[in-house]
Amino acid sequence: MSLTLKLALSPLLVAQALLTRRRLPTLPEPEGPRAGVAGRGRPLALLIAGDSSAAGVGVVSQQQALSGQLVGRLARHRRVRGSLLARSGLTTRQTAEMLGTLPHDPHEGAVDVAVVVTGVNDVVDQVPSTHAVQVRDALVNRLRNAWGVHHVVFAPLPPIHHFPGLPQPLRWVAGTDAERHNRALRDWAATRGDASVVAMHVPLNRGTMAADGFHPGETVYRYCGIAIADHILSLREFRG
Fold first, then answer.
1. 184: which of 117, 177, 178, 217 lies 20 to 30 Å off by Cα?
2. Span 87-105, average pLDDT
3. Is the whole-model pTM more than 0.70?
4. Kind plus residue range of the DSSP H or E element containing 23
5. What gap in Å lies between CA 66 and CA 117, rounded to an integer?
6. How far apart are CA 240 and CA 237, in angstroms?
């Protein structure tokens, strides 16, 4: 989208964004444990960090959410020690800051793989994709140096242009911004050997998303958990 067109639409976009914030219901983060051990076999220490989608907003239990779906899939092959550090509304920068204020306990051992789910709030807050990538780069370095993480897996931004809870043209503009963030994310991850982006084509519609038309439903979380787990198990350091 051209900057000229976006500027021309900006009064309408701002009005739609404010109205949507007031109209959409505020969904809680689901109940359930955010740390635990599951499965048998070779150990795998997993950290999940990020925003409301990482936290599981849109379902009623962590078992139905991303963490439960992901750990359940991985536990078919590994003994997974998982932990979830996520909060609704976080941008990528705020996620990095949160992890910086919660230093990893070395007695718990190193984290093998971290899954980071952020980006939608970067789009909402109009964070430039170049800035978001810089923060992600610093986040990977922090996870490696302070948490001993071997590899950081990033979930791509969802196709916001398919969010049924957003009106047009706000949905279209936000979707275009999300695609730009994803291109920058993939290009950046290709320059690092310790970070990667999961390939996903998530089916988003009224039947698969939460009641607000903005957050994932159980079907989407299941799909994402399978895709991320299979991606992790395909990485050279975690095969077998």
1. 217
2. 89
3. yes
4. helix 3-23
5. 10
6. 9
